[in-house]
Structures are given as C-alpha cells and as structure tokens.
Amino acid sequence: MQADIEIYVLSCPTENITAWLENTFTLVKKSSPSALCSKVTLVSNDHEIEVTILEQAAGKRFTSIWFDSDKTPWDDDIACAKQAFESLNCEVRCNFQGWEEEGNQDPDQWWRINSHGEGPFIWN
Predict the structure, then answer these.
(1) Does 98 score more than 60 pLDDT?
(2) Residue 122: its pLDDT value, please?
(3) Domain residues of the chain, as ranges?
(4) CB 4 within 8 A of CB 66
(5) Which residues have CB under 8 Å from 63's CB, separation 6+?
(6) Which CATH number fits domain 5-122: 3.40.50, 3.30.1340, 3.30.310, 1.10.10?
(7) Residue 6's pLDDT is what?
(8) pLDDT of residue 1
(9) What is the overall mean pLDDT for the chain?
(10) What highest taxon heads this organism's lineage (predicted)?
(11) For residues 105 and 58, which has the higher predicted lDDT (pLDDT)?
C-alpha cells in the first residue's frame, strides 16, 4: 500500500475533478485556500482522506490531485490514474513506480494515459 497517491490531469476543470470525487467517495468537507488550490475531505471505507487539488501544478495546464492517505482504494498511482481517466476523459499522468525515499528510479519516468492509450514516458 502506498503512503499517498498523486496524479496530474491535463486541462481538466477543478469542478469536474470535484464531481468525480463526489461520485466516487462521500465528500464531507470542501474548501478553497487560494484561487488555484481546493481541499476536500472524503470518506472511503470509514477512513477520512484529505485531498488537495492544485491547479497549474506542473506548467499552466496540469492540475495535481494529491490523496494524502494510505487508505485510498487504489494499490498505486497508476490504478488511480486509470480510474481518473475513465471518469474525467482527460490525459492523466502519474509517477511510474510510486515514490520511494531511497529508490533508484528515474525521477523523469512517468506513466501517461490518454485517448491514444497508456504507457511509460519521460516527462521533463
């Protein structure tokens, strides 16, 4: 189980992201600390999950969705990205292997899912 899950969506309005989360989980709290940042608290299997949605997180067109919990229903970032792509129908990117403190992975190695398919690629 991963400590947290983070995905990046391309050109996807925050309202669509919030609607996906509300359809997938029970939404208990929602706030907007800034113009580009929204925070929501979800409940999944009796666990509260804090989620931060940050627009323009990677360049102007990518929004980060960060699930700050090891209690999400997904095994890894890629599983989350697949569900997000199916629901949001916009390109989704995530770390290829999940983040590890002492991993030997290439930090530019990512997983991309879009209308052309999915697979690893270098994002730099």
Answers:
(1) no
(2) 86
(3) 5-122
(4) yes
(5) 8, 9, 12, 14, 17, 53, 54, 55, 56, 57
(6) 3.30.310
(7) 96
(8) 65
(9) 91
(10) Bacteria
(11) 58
